[in-house]
Amino acid sequence: MNSTTSKPILILGGTGKTGRRLAERLTAHGLPVRIGSRSGTPRFDWELPATWGPAMQGVSAVYISYYPDIAVPGAAETVGAFARLAVANGVTRLVLLSGRGETEAQRAEEMLKASGADWTILRCAWFSQNFSEGFLVESLLEGEVALPVGNVGEPFVDADDIADAAFVALTEQGHVGHLYELTGPRLLSFADAVAEIAKAAGRDIRYIKVSHDEFTAAMAAHELPPEIAWLLNELFTEVLDGRNETLTDGVQRVLGRAPKDFSAYANETAATGIWSN
Ligand SMILES: NC(=O)c1ccc[n+]([C@@H]2O[C@H](COP(=O)([O-])OP(=O)(O)OC[C@H]3O[C@@H](n4cnc5c(N)ncnc54)[C@H](OP(=O)(O)O)[C@@H]3O)[C@@H](O)[C@H]2O)c1
């Protein structure tokens, strides 16, 4: 543990998929945390830069999870501005949650590096938890998942592994200046992932590949905000083209163990009942 741990660690997105898990880990080890989100105290809002300075006063480090997505145009400038402000305020230890194969995410990484921070980057594959804590839950409950992606393999990574990696990066020495690419241990298509969930949940759930226009129309019918619809289409068009069909050893390098397999995630999550109606 480093000597600055009596000060809280600011966790941006601290109520979200990875931030919540990181907060749980730090708290369980008796380490103070400050949640950086619109519901935090003080409030932190990416869209209101005046809230950034007060949220970072007196913290030892920041876990940066950008919202809505680090692939959104302009995310790099915003993350860069945040990192420069943190360094100017003497908060130099910054850990960024990033994405793979995304132009804007890789630009954000460069902005972070250029800020003068003591940086660590966790460049992550798609989270398994998108199926249980994200936009796919409703379709799984309805028994049909329709996405504009075919037989492309994605190495879904578990949010618990990401939180474990963030915890280690923030509490142990030797991770400054390192970029860890975090993936799960296996490539699965979205059809494979849905089939694993269906099996674990003991239900019939279909996967259908649809066109981008059909997907956009379906999202509008579900009243998803247009910017989220744009983002999802972008991710499915740009990023799921095969460029990320590789496994990495990032989890092994940071944690000294294998990443969690999707089937373990599916079985554990099915047992919570979230996919049962
Ligand atoms: N999901 C994936 O598969 C994946 C893969 C690789 C990288 N990433 C990256 O991970 C990051 C987080 O994505 P996620 O899907 O896991 O989301 P998430 O963390 O589950 O997002 C929700 C969090 O964001 C906060 N939030 C919402 N609006 C905010 C605002 N205007 N200002 C400040 N905080 C706000 C929420 O708290 P409040 O509601 O209290 O504000 C909550 O803590 C993104 O940058 C994404 O690009 C995601």
TrEMBL record:
<feature type="domain" description="NAD(P)-binding">
    <location>
        <begin position="13"/>
        <end position="137"/>
    </location>
</feature>
<protein>
    <submittedName>
        <fullName>NmrA family transcriptional regulator</fullName>
    </submittedName>
</protein>
<dbReference type="InterPro" id="IPR051604">
    <property type="entry name" value="Ergot_Alk_Oxidoreductase"/>
</dbReference>
<dbReference type="InterPro" id="IPR016040">
    <property type="entry name" value="NAD(P)-bd_dom"/>
</dbReference>
<dbReference type="InterPro" id="IPR036291">
    <property type="entry name" value="NAD(P)-bd_dom_sf"/>
</dbReference>
<dbReference type="Pfam" id="PF13460">
    <property type="entry name" value="NAD_binding_10"/>
</dbReference>
